[in-house]
């Protein structure tokens, strides 16, 4: 055992590094949260799987097969542990069309081939490429599928059968409305009413009963009413498993089958990968920050979906994809591993084998109403607002219309063409205007300067009078080489004829390239010079020797720095600060860190004005409630941030080489009670925690700390997070799930930030600080 002692061994207890405990034998364990989550997902998946099978025209058992395979195969081999796979509403239109064209057995074979293609794409590691598809196209595709589903199921709701296309369903609707089946409409109306009202039940009792899925309650209620009232409506009819149809050799035109394989591959892959990304965001939004749940491995997820489609098609099931509704339910129910997804698949298998008589009681109009509501919900108002805000509503509308009127593959292709056209239009849309102000010629260039805009730019430049004073204002984020050469050549010629040219940005800040002489004169200047007290280009004539002169020189440096801010930085941030002045501050988190001058919070977190409510003190300490003895500044800041500003998270940030922790280690019992010593007494619980045998030492990226000071710095972050929980407002918000706590350790010498894992149960888990990689910026990690 290694013994670590400070320089003054008589003034502090001995600190020992515990041995790493031996790893226990690996056993298959199921957490209670996974068990309860699997039941919740099963209760949602069972009626939806039957409804989607009904909507496609496939054997009803195929929906149960796909749900079971999605849970067991995709759940076991996929790369997103908490994503739930199964028959998806987004595949309804594709599958229905394939069944109508080629029959059920060939459709199963197409599903197997699509799974093999997905396995090949996973081997090529192209999963990330699917995310390059514009969200407007994806949302438009899903909305178009939702409209098609809703139109088809509306006919079943009214007591008839749907037509082969969305257009035919719309044209046949007037005749259907003239011959409504009252019993089917009544059962459907009851199902829709329960689906819409169940999540809105008020009161404490409503909160309890809302834990039962609305889809399950709606189907059970409709089944009970139909049974007790003796309504003459069609019911589910699950045939014997002995007659279950398995795939056969593909029969049909090669190009048609290839198009079917491509369509299923495209829809299932994109939907599954986007759903996996959404699941990662949901997991990260948990109060514990998703501790213990790994991020999705997209290539592995694609392979898992491919394997599931191969197995599902081979067993006579529907195509499989990641399903957002069931995945959200799984995450919301508190699942922590892939065991919940696999267990839900097991429950589907048991239900398909043991509950056939019960399932045969379900009225088909109830399932049709359930799927119709799901289709309507796929046309998301939130998505429409998002694409409108990003000026991509045309792409969304064209994709939606193409999917409804022509087909999924054709609609997506139209969306891609329109998205490219919109991008090119934005790239070539350059406005060039000219005006005269105070005897100077002002040329405003708004938009991206590419080679396509060079003719108009050259025409506008050569219309300016020779020898005039010209200001060229560039308001865009891109200038290609052709535009740069055109502007540079004209500038050189205009200056040669006695004119002047000044190029500025949209804020009026001058744009210029430094000359070699300027660079040589200001070699000390770097982007971080304001933090290093450099005054670029301002060398004092003589070195002050007296204290008064030194103080005066320091004051001049401060004034010079303020002047530089007013001249260079203020024009860039004035609009944002004016907005904050009007609207007030709405920071996202309270950031509590040390007063050390080397810690620049905005640099570490890549934050700006209004982002952080920052509290700094010596040692980043959080005194326990009531122990600040006359100075409640930290407690007041916590209360104001949590109660008034309603921050979403609190971060405690420690750092390497902390002088406060060094002073705490070296403190002796006979030291005079100076203000610093009195303040550092709030850090004694951290020192006691470090030397206690009840707590394992914190680790940093898998290694033990370099020395006792670093160990105390790490332990102090953990201890102050525990102190935060003792504050009543913090404890209440944590219980509500509206506040999260985070720990950060910044290694000054390495310029590396580390996030603390396991802060939600600091008494039970080893505290591990994990490195924040450049591909996963700290602000992205904390934004969840």
TrEMBL record:
Membrane topology type: Multi-pass membrane protein
Keywords associated with the record: Membrane, Transmembrane, Transmembrane helix
InterPro entries tied to this protein: Carbonic_anhydrase, Carbonic_anhydrase_sf, SLC26A/SulP_dom, SLC26A/SulP_fam
Principal location class: membrane
Top-level taxon in the UniProt lineage: Bacteria
SUPFAM superfamilies per record: beta-carbonic anhydrase, cab
SLC26A/SulP transporter domain segment(s): 33-398
Region (Disordered) location: 1-25
Transmembrane segments: 35-55, 102-124, 136-158, 178-201, 213-234, 254-279, 335-356, 362-381, 393-424
Pfam families, per the entry: Pro_CA, Sulfate_transp
Localization (cell): Membrane
Family: Belongs to the beta-class carbonic anhydrase family.
Described purpose of this protein according to its UniProt entry: Catalyzes the reversible hydration of carbon dioxide to form bicarbonate.
Protein name, entry field: SulP family inorganic anion transporter
């Amino acid at each position: 055992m290694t013994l670590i002692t400070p320089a003054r061994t008589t003034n502090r207890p001995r600190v020992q590094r515990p041995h790493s405990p031996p790893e226990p034998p690996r056993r298959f364990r199921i957490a209670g949260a996974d068990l309860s989550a699997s039941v919740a997902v099963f209760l949602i998946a069972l009626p939806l799987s039957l409804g989607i099978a009904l909507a496609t025209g496939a054997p009803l058992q195929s929906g149960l097969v796909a749900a079971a395979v999605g849970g067991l195969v995709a759940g076991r081999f996929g790369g997103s542990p908490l994503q739930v796979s199964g028959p998806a509403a987004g595949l309804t239109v594709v599958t229905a069309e394939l069944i109508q064209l080629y029959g059920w057995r060939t459709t199963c074979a197409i599903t197997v081939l699509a799974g093999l293609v997905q396995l090949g794409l996973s081997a090529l590691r192209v999963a990330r490429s699917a995310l390059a598809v514009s969200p407007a196209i994806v949302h438009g595709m899903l909305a178009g599928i939702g409209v098609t589903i809703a139109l088809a199921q509306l006919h079943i709701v009214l007591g008839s059968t749907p037509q082969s296309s969305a257009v035919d369903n719309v044209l046949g609707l007037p005749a259907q409305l003239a011959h409504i089946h009252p019993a089917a409409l009544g059962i459907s109306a009851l199902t829709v009413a329960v689906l819409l009202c169940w999540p809105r039940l008020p009161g404490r009792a409503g909160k309890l009963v809302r834990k039962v899925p609305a889809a399950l309650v709606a189907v059970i209620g409709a089944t009970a009413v139909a049974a007790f009232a003796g309504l003459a409506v069609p019911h589910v009819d699950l045939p014997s498993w002995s007659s279950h149809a398995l795939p056969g050799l593909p029969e049909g035109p090669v190009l048609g089958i290839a198009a079917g394989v491509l369509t299923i591959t495209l829809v299932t892959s994109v939907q599954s990968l986007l759903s996996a990304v959404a699941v990662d965001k949901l997991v990260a939004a948990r109060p514990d920050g998703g501790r213990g749940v790994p991020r999705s491995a997209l290539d592995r997820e694609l392979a898992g979906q491919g394997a599931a489609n191969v197995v599902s098609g081979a067993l006579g099931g529907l195509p499989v994809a990641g399903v957002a509704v069931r995945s959200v339910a799984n995450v919301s129910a508190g699942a922590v591993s892939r065991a919940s997804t696999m267990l839900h698949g097991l429950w589907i298998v048991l239900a398909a084998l043991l509950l056939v008589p019960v399932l045969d009681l379900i009225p088909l109009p109830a399932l049709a109403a359930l799927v119709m509501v799901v289709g309507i919900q796929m046309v998301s108002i939130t998505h429409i607002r998002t694409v409108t805000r990003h000026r991509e509503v045309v792409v969304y509308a064209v994709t939606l219309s193409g999917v409804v009127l022509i087909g999924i593959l054709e609609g997506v292709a139209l969306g891609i063409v329109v998205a490219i056209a919109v991008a090119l239009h934005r790239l070539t849309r350059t406005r060039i205007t000219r005006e005269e102000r105070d005897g100077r010629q002002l040329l405003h260039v708004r938009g991206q300067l590419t080679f396509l805009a060079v003719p108009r730019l050259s025409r506008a430049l050569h219309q300016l009078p020779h020898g005039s004073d010209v200001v060229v204002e560039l308001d865009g984020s891109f200038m290609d080489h052709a535009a740069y050469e055109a502007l540079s050549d004209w500038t050189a010629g205009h200056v040669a004829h006695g004119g002047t040219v000044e190029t500025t940005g949209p804020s009026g800040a001058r744009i210029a390239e430094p000359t070699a002489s300027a660079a040589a004169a200001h070699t000390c200047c770097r982007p971080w010079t304001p933090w290093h007290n450099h005054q670029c280009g301002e060398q004092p004539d003589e070195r002050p020797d007296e204290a008064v002169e030194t103080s005066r020189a320091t004051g001049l440096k401060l004034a010079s720095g303020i002047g530089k801010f007013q001249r260079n930085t203020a024009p860039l941030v004035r609009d944002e600060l004016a907005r904050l002045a009007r609207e007030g501050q709405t920071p996202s988190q309270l950031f509590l860190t040390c007063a050390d001058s080397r810690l620049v919070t905005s640099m570490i977190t890549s934050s700006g004005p209004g982002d952080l409510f920052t509290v700094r003190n010596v040692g980043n300490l959080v005194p326990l409630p009531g122990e600040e003895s006359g100075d409640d500044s930290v407690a007041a800041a916590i209360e104001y941030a949590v109660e008034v500003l309603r921050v979403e998270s609190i971060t405690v940030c420690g750092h390497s080489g902390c002088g406060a922790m060094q002073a705490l280690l070296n403190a002796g019992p006979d030291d005079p009670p100076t203000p610093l010593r009195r303040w550092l007494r709030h850090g004694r619980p951290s020192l006691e925690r470090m030397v206690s045998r009840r707590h394992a030492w914190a680790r940093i990226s898998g290694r033990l700390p370099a020395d006792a000071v670093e160990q105390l710095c790490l332990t102090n972050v953990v201890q102050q997070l525990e102190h935060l929980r003792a504050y009543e407002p913090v404890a209440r918000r944590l219980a509500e799930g509206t506040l999260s706590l985070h720990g950060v350790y910044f290694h000054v010498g390495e310029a590396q930030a580390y996030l603390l894992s396991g802060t939600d149960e600091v008494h039970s888990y080893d505290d591990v600080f994990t490195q924040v990689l450049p591909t996963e910026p700290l602000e992205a990690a904390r934004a969840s």
